[in-house]
Specification:
Mean pLDDT of chain A: 91
Strand order of the largest sheet of chain A: 1-2
Strand content of chain B: 15-25%
Largest sheet of chain A: 2 strands, antiparallel
Shape of chain B: globular
Distance between the termini of chain A: 28 Å
Oligomer: heterodimer
CATH superfamily of chain B: P-loop containing nucleotide triphosphate hydrolases
Shape of chain A: globular
Structural class of chain B: alpha/beta
Number of helices of chain A: 14
Low-confidence stretches of chain A: 315-319
Distance between the termini of chain B: 15 Å
Radius of gyration of chain A: 19 Å
Number of helices of chain B: 9
Low-confidence stretches of chain B: 256-261
Largest interface: A-B, 32 and 42 residues
CATH topology of chain B: Rossmann fold
Chain lengths: 319, 261
Amino acid sequence: MRGRVILGLALVGLLALPLVLSPYRLLLMLPFMAYGVILLGLNLLFAYAGLVSFGHALFVGIGAYTGAFLTTHAGVRSLEAIVLVAAVLGAVAAALVGLLCVRYVKIYFGMLTLAFGMVFYTFLLKFYRLTGGDEGMPVLRPLLLGLNLDAMPKTDYLVGPYYYYCLGVLIVAAAVMWRIVHSPFGLCLRTIRDNPAKAEALGVSVTRYRWYAFVISAVFAAVGGALLGPPTGNVDPTLAYWTHSGSLVFMALLGGFASFFGPVLGAFVFIFLQDAVMSVVPYWRLVFGAILAGIVIFAPAGLMGLFGGRRAPVEVSRT
Amino acid sequence: MILEARDVRKLYGDFCALDGVSLAVGAGEFVSIIGPNGAGKSTLINVLTGVLRPTAGTVRFKGRDVAGIGPVALTRLGLARSFQLVQIFPDLTVMETLQAPVVSRLGRGARFFRSLAGDREVQAGALEVAELFGLADKRHVPARQLPQGDKKLLDVASAFALRPEIILLDEPTSGVSTAEKSAIMEILVAASRRMGLKAIIQVEHDMDIVFGYSDRIVALHQGKVLADAAPAAIRADARVVDMVIGRSHHLPSPPKGERAG
């Protein structure tokens, strides 16, 4: 009940924000919402399947570059089409990469995903004819629900229609993920996380369900990635770099991966904290490193744990 | 015969864990496998449950060759197992633990967008098993918070929730107090009748449990079948008593009519 009230208030707040917040802060909300979608997916792997991916930026990159390719090379500017194609490409890539990765667990899984992420990063960096190399590619302003809003000033477009579009995608993504984790499939994932040998003895096909989770989480990452490009109007290979994957894991830990909305909260705090710290000191990574160490040691359940959120679906310290 | 292993050999490098073991289990039987540590009991269980592929020999379940096909495929055919060391899902509640096998039995694990809470068949199936095993009152308790005896029961109950034809119990009463042992056995024998199981195979060290419940006892020694007979015959077999049970062990007196299946 308390959770529903908080969720309702958060929703009203997000809807009303463009009326009260400065354009500068509203622009920060855009990557937050994109990361929110990505983190919902990452957390299916992290909290529900017990797998930590250090290569999820691969799928974020696929989503972001899909937007760049479609708008600049293919003449497709519909954001719905971009999101859809990004989701399909993310799924296809994850289906192939996942075939290998999900046979491994723990650090081996993490390192394999990292390796594939690095391969894709290098591809983006070196095939500059196709990808623009380290300069990346431009992303043209997409059409929203078929509407061409090129006449609007860029900031108005971003803090108005684009803001609500991202919010819509985030809400749909959260609703879909909520269904997934509360489905029979979600239960099977949790049995695998807790005790794979026992899960198999109960007829749960461990590698197959891990693979499903991997593909689903990549789809969310690609969709979120597709939303990251338009605000800056450009995508570059750092989106697929391993430090970006690390930031995603950081967000999940920061918010608290053990709760459903924890990682989304983590994305929010990460974006705004990063902005605040960067405006004070140039070496924000130093500060973030200290924060990360502090979380792991003193608050392994993240911010959600500090707020005394609902019972964790997983015992945190054990994982 | 429902489950039949013939001339099964299993080598680990040079070490021969099973050396020509044959075993057949028919409908209505309660078969116990006994033997000292290192006799090959665990290897045999792992071969029978498809986890290990035998080096030679065949394993047939309902006439199908199931050697090494893996636990997931075997559960689908109707064979379930529980483990020697208690295996639970620490963060799942009792109900969730029992829902998982029902989901897998009904083949609903890939229902990504359906509500688990709204699946009445799964809920009813899990609740039925919880009631049979006396765990219904604790159905919302996370498994890690259960007392040891209940963890053991939950492990066994979740295997029963698959509604198998045969169940293999690897030391169903190990790690629980003597007082709880017979209670667990009574519950699981009653549950197997209610759920229409065709046969039970157990590996057990406790001779009171072995002689109290078995229709047949298979004694393993150094990877070979030393004896395969009714409890009365086993009790009278000097070699088995010497090599497997031990002279010093006080053998329980024959229970009421050797308990027919």
